[in-house]
Amino acid sequence: MTHISLISYSMYLINLCLVVGFINKYFPIVNASDGSIKYIVYWGATLFFSTIIYKYFEKPVMDLRDRF
């Protein structure tokens, strides 16, 4: 839960506009099980990219802010 609270702003920024657009374009639903796979891919991609944004952008900027 702590990790999700740290990356929550990054999740807010990318979840619908980037991840859903990409998944809908490249992973069309063909049958019922595709919806479940799409849901797992959605959350995996959201958590992965949010962690990357937090680690390489948000955290360094916050550390820089705290120095001044």
| Biggest beta-sheet profile | none
One letter per element, helices H and strands E, the order comes to: HH
Indicate the percent of residues in helices: over 70%
How many runs of DSSP E, i.e. beta strands?
Answer: 0
Uncertain ranges: none
Strand content: under 5%
Distance N terminus to C terminus?
A: 29 Å
Alpha-carbon Rg, integer:
15 Å
Q: What is the structural class? A: mainly alpha
Based on Cα principal axes, name the global outline: elongated
Give the rounded overall mean pLDDT: 85
Count structural domains: 1
Number of helices: 2
What would you say about this model in short?
With 68 residues, the protein is mostly helical. The chain contains two helices and no strands.
Can you characterise this structure?
It is built from two helices and no strands. Helix 1 (2-26) crosses helix 2 (32-67). It is an all-alpha fold and 68 residues long. It starts with a helix and ends with a helix. The model has no long low-confidence stretch (mean pLDDT 85). The protein has one domain (2-67).
Descriptive keywords:
68 residues; mainly alpha; 90% helix; 2 helices
